[in-house]
């Protein structure tokens, strides 16, 4: 497996964040939030981890919440991108669903630290940032729901409750970020393959 | 639905914690940890929420970690108890698995605040407390794995990877605590029924 595959398809996470100092601060914030929680982390902690002064942090981010907002937005955009690339390919609904689950699971396993921060600190966002992130989450849901609806329409899937089944499929994939352990017995790809098979069963794929 | 059913089968959560002051402190700690995270919560915050002085807290709990340990142990013991009561009843492997999933999901939905603290703050426990809680988690896993193994042995289930499938089933149920919303469209019982059906599909129940 290449380094890019191990990081869930990303050769350089946060490459879009520039300049370099802003990116280092973001990476430091992810680590600090994951270790101690958002509320227990100070901007001083984050600056210290990045080897910078608190004053240098404020050049790039006005508040701690701005850091969380940026992490959460980029994290959701990446997850959505991974899902769309896989789920909108050629193939039957079953193939597209399997690909989408595999990619989404790989991303949550490989990027589990970012994913945990993004999932568990949602309530710490202010109202505007929260609304923006919730809109992205709805797009993520709609992507998976669309594939399931396609499969039901073509008779390939047998699903009584499309919304509930979509919720369960998303939940199963997202929770990989909670339990995944890099020292554990399974690679992100192996978890992805296992879960793709289980999800096809959940939708009653023929 | 009765009040006892709404609380996941518990008429009086934490009833085993005595005296009353110790129980009030525990309830206050769960709320504070869930809102702000373990590391951002002080014993002063917890005492204040319970309407007590910090000195009164130390009569019952020597440290903040002792509170988290107690919450985590009781939370895991309850979840294990709920699972065993349902999963060891009469009936086929499919009936027992459906009952176990339904009960476990109901508990995680109704007790989502406790369950979130228990799941997300595991790493904040000291080594001894952590080892004790991990042993309880292994028993929870073994309970579900045992039912799946029974079903495979009798030919009722078709499962290629029993450990992996057990992990996925547990993960699906536990993650209900993350997304469940008391103001949402589904009751704990409805989520339990939906999930019992999905899990029977995951194990290829005939």
Automatic annotation (TrEMBL), chains A, B:
Domain of life: Bacteria
PROSITE patterns: HTH_TETR_2
Alphabetical list of InterPro entries matching this protein: Homeodomain-like_sf (IPR009057), HTH-type_TetR-like_transc_reg (IPR050109), HTH_TetR (IPR001647), KstR2_TetR_C (IPR041490), Tet_transcr_reg_TetR-rel_C_sf (IPR036271)
Organism, as annotated: Streptomyces colonosanans
Record-linked SUPFAM superfamilies: Homeodomain-like, Tetracyclin repressor-like, C-terminal domain
Keywords: DNA-binding
Annotated region of DNA binding: 42-61
Spans through the membrane: none
A GO term, aspect molecular function: DNA-binding transcription factor activity
Coiled-coil segments on the chain, per record: none
Protein name, UniProt field: TetR family transcriptional regulator
Positions of the HTH tetR-type domain: 19-79
């Amino acid at each position: 497996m290449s380094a890019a595959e191990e990081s869930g398809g990303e050769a350089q996470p946060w490459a879009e964040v520039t300049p370099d100092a802003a990116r280092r601060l973001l990476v430091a914030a992810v680590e600090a939030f994951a270790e101690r929680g958002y509320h227990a982390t100070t901007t001083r902690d984050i600056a210290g981890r990045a080897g910078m002064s608190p004053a240098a942090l404020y050049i790039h981010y006005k508040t701690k919440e701005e850091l969380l907002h940026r992490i959460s937005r980029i994290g959701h955009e990446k997850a959505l991108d991974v899902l769309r690339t896989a789920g909108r390919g050629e193939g039957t609904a079953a193939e597209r669903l399997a690909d989408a689950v595999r990619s989404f699971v790989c991303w949550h396993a490989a990027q589990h630290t970012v994913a945990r921060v993004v999932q568990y600190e949602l309530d710490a966002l202010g109202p505007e940032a929260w609304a923006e992130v919730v809109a992205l989450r709805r797009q993520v849901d709609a992507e998976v729901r669309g594939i399931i609806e396609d499969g039901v329409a073509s008779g390939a899937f047998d699903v009584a409750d499309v919304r509930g089944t979509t919720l369960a499929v998303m939940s199963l994939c997202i929770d990989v970020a909670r339990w995944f352990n890099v020292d554990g017995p399974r690679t992100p790809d192996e978890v992805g393959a296992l879960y793709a098979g289980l999800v096809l069963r959940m939708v009653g794929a023929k």
